[in-house]
Amino acid sequence: MSIESFAQTLVFGLFVGSIYGIAAMGLALVFGVLKMLNIAHGELLMLGGYATFWAFRTFGMDPFVSLAISIPLLFAVGLILDRTIYHRIVRLLGEEKIKNSLLVSFGLTLVIQNLAIWLFTADERTVQVSYAGVGFNLLGVALPYTRLLSLVIALTATLALSYFLHRTYPGKAILGTAEDFEAAELAGINIHRVYMLTFALGASLASIAGTLVTVIYGISPSIGIIWTLKALIVIVLAGTGSILGAFPAGILLGVVEAVSGAFIGPTYREVIGLVIFVLVLILRPQGLFTRK
Amino acid sequence: MTRFLDIHGINASYGDAQALRDVSINVNEGEIVALIGPNGAGKTTLMRVIAGLHPPLSGTVKLGDTALHPLAAYQIVEEGVILVPEGRRLFGGLSVLDNLELGAYAPRARKSRFTMLKHVFELFPMLAERQHQHANTLSGGQQQMLAIGRALMGLPKLLMLDEPSLGLAPLIVENIFEIVKRMNDEGVTIFLVEQNARRALELANRAYILEQGRIAGKGTGKELLHNNDVREAYLGYAPATG
Amino acid sequence: MERTIVFQKVTVTSFCQSDCHPAYKEFNLLLQLERVTKSFNGLMAVNYVSMTVDKGEILGLIGPNGAGKTTLFNLITGVYPPNKGKILFEGKDITVMARHQRCWLGIARTFQLARPFPQLSVLDNVTIGRVYGYDSTRNRAQAESDALQILEQVGLATRAEEKAQNLTLVDRKRLELARALAARPKLLLLDELLTGLNPSEVLASMKLIQSVREMGITVIVVEHLVKAVFGIADRIFVLNAGDLIAEGSPKVIAHDQNVIDAYLGKSFHD
Fold it and tell me: Which strands form B32-36's sheet, in the order they lie side by side?
């Protein structure tokens, strides 16, 4: 394999990985703060993607511009879902919480999926921008504009989330609640508002991922569960205590998939992800980016 | 002195067991009141009930005329009742500064948080030195200071402390008790649970003894230091049965 | 002298050879701890503690919170080995012996957070204990009748057919005791049996513990409820911050200044 081919593989792994990362971060955020696994996360991603598709089909809006619509839309959806459904589950304890959160979020995936089928049919849809397929060529490595823009958006979102969590007052309240919700309450933090805000943020991050997925791959009502699974693998890789660590973990997975796909064979690309998942669980169950 | 914190007829469970039985306590404004008693007596459960972390089975908790139960914990903080919990419960991954700032998150305290921060740094200069360190890198004594500082940021009218001396060296314990006294001098009412019964009684104006979930005695600090009630509660020698 | 305990296909051989103290031959000295030390991450939980337990005693182990009682308890029952020191049971060195092997030797314990099999009846819970214990029997009928007898002794016979999950707290503790007794132990360690009980339940449980001793079982009681321990123990060991600070009869301990200081704390002027 030539150096250029290898570099191309790495770069594409980076591109794919950045989408994995942004898709996983929303799930990691909700899991880290609400201590609850939202199986419907992939469906929220899908909704964001469909919002982009709809804006493109109806107004010819550039998908990256449509983020201005899909992000607030999914933020609102997240607020509503928390207010109506998830806030009851968050306050449960132990086994009850686990069972109920899995059941309810699974039920939600069925509802959202069918909603999407009803609105957009089950066909796969794509968004073909005018500059699709065009890009830079840097030292023999192809860098399509769509992929580059995706990477930039994903990076920007990650940096924005990091800034929000670590440098703003409500962001720090979220981090505190994630560490010890009783201590947060004792500090006067309204944890119910924190949970609502966090869930809405998670939905927004999912919608960004959804837009990027639609541009690069296309969208259909069945992609939800696939992306939830991918996100789950990434957060296990990163370690469930690490929210921002999901981004580098996603990139790592993307690169490893791409490289092994190139050397072993494209059919094994998906398997590699699962193999790594199992290996990390056995050898370093706390994840790669958490301490201890 | 006005009846400030008024706890009446509190019954509470802990898992399956009844942890508190008909507990009634009152704390007057400006006082230091201690709650002492053997381990497992229910002291921490009572603190958690007052702070809103644990619902009682029956009974009332009032601050002046305001009923604190069934308010949520963060609402009770807004009313001015702030608990420094057992074991500190800091946000370990956040900095000392962040921990302190979050202590002022409630609306009433938020506006004055920058002035309060200066005040807390004056009280605890070693926290100012380490303000950007992660809270879990501090020593036990420093963590306790931070926990108290965080509570102060919330502008407490009534400050509750659950075993502030636990696991700390005697010199540091002295330091902490000095600070508690100083805060009381500045007008903060104090309700204190302490492992070290003697030290608590020396500091407090009044004290209650909790034994097996019941109030087994009460009096002024001086009274209890010199009578046998406390020793009875902890080590009372009951005649053999059967 | 070799004693062999056969259980299914596993054979555990206990031996008492040249390192046997003469007193052990009569097994009056049931348990001996020699300078036992345990630390966790540099924190000394149990600090060179030595103690002896005679057959037929009720021994109390008390001390303020964090004194090391639970750690000592766990060392005796085999949850983890000590860093230094020896533990001898009936003359045998059990310092590093596994938990289930100690059970086969005749050491049983109760758990503070009792976890019976919730869907099984009270009787079944105890019957299982009869089948897998020190002096076990594989005969189901025998095991059941033994179990019923034990239930009588702890006062649960009337609830034999009830599901374990439906019991009240005090009955659940009785069930826990019955399960431990089902293993027919020589030494029974009770872990905070009295926590959460009201005063009359405490008195009843104290009588129960004394009746256990009358069955010929030696008992070590770890308790926060010092008054109750004073009421039933023959001897008491007091731990504070990992050190053994006092031992003696209840009367002696109740007036020991070190013990009072440990519980009440040091005054400002000390």
Answer: B81-84, B158-162, B189-193, B32-36, B206-211, B214-220
DSSP-derived letter for residue B95 is: B
Interatomic CA distance for residues C85 and B73, integer angstroms: 48
Pick the CATH number of C1-106+192-265 from 3.40.50.300, 3.80.30.30, 3.30.70.100, 3.65.10.10: 3.40.50.300
Report chain B residues whose CB lies below 8 A from the CB of C232. 240-241
DSSP class of residue C121?
B
Helix H or strand E segment including B20: strand B17-28
Kind and range of the H or E run holding C33 = strand C29-40
C116 by Cβ neighbours in 10 Å (0-12 / 13-18 / 19+) ranks as buried
Q: Quick one: closest CA in B to C167, which residue? A: B16
Is C169's CB within 8 Å of B17's CB?
yes
Extract the residue ranges of chain C whose pLDDT is less than 70. Answer: 1-27, 133-137, 267-270
Give residue C8's pLDDT: 33
Looking at residue B94, its pLDDT comes to 95
3-state SS assignment for residue C75 = helix
pTM, 2 dp: 0.84
Is the domain covering A3-283 a CATH 2.60.120 domain? no
Q: Which residues contact A59 (CB under 8 A, 6 or more apart)?
A: none
Facing residue for B106 by CB, picked from A169, A188, A191? A188
CB contact under 8 A, A186 and B98: no
Contacts of B85 in chain A (CB under 8 A): 182-183, 186
Q: Of A26-30, A268-272, C176-180, which range is least confident?
A: A268-272
Give the model confidence (pLDDT) of A141-160 as tens digits.
Answer: 888 999 999 999 999 999 99
> Mean per-residue pLDDT for B183-191?
94
Distance from CA of B223 to the nearest CA of A (A): 33
